Amino acid sequence: MEHYLQFAPTQRVTKASLPRGNPAKPYVQPITTPWSVALPPGSLPKLLMGFRAEIMDHKWHVYADGPDADGFADVHFLRSWTGNPIVTARIKTDREGGAGGEQARIVEITWEADPTRGPFRNTPTEESARNWVLDVCDWVFGIRLPGQTGDYKSLQQGDTE
């Protein structure tokens, strides 16, 4: 699988910096559940910098809000063609360096449950939302999160866009 690291932005991607013709849209049927995943060292700055799709094949816009005063950042994964949110990962940063020097951890995810709003062949589930985070972090940023096997399960679930 090709990573898009050569297309990494030089400035932080924000909601306001996304294309005007396809702005970020709100969730229609958001579902939020806890998920505890440690981020590998060095991955937090990449996620906070984000990614803006420049060509159709890139498929994803990723931008982050935060971290706020409490150390939380929300990383939003949107389809570039529609601006529809697919999943948001809430990350707790640890400026003190948590257990084992951990910098940050995904603590929950919010995903779009409306099957008409994303690249879904089946009704989105918590498992499919987790797979999108795992796969997009690997495809776009070259970040292999715990649980990513290289099987790209979100592709197997069907990317219909």
Folded structure, characterized:
- The chain is α+β, with helices and mostly antiparallel strands and 161 residues long.
- The protein is built from three helices and five strands; from the N terminus they run βαββββαα.
- It has helices at 43-49, 126-141, 153-156, and strands at 30-38, 60-65, 72-79, 85-93, 104-112.
- Strands 1-5-4-3-2 form a five-stranded antiparallel β-sheet, with helices on one face.
- Strand 2 and strand 3 form a beta hairpin.
- This is Endoplasmic oxidoreductin 1.
- It comes from Purpureocillium lavendulum.
Strands, count: 5
Order of helices and strands: EHEEEEHH
Spatial sequence of strands, sheet with the most strands: 1-5-4-3-2
What Rg, in angstroms, do the CA atoms define?
Answer: 15 Å
Main pleated sheet: 5 strands, antiparallel
Topology:
Layout: E1 30-38, H1 43-49, E2 60-65, E3 72-79, E4 85-93, E5 104-112, H2 126-141, H3 153-156
Antiparallel strand pairs: 1-5, 2-3, 3-4, 4-5
Protein name: Endoplasmic oxidoreductin 1
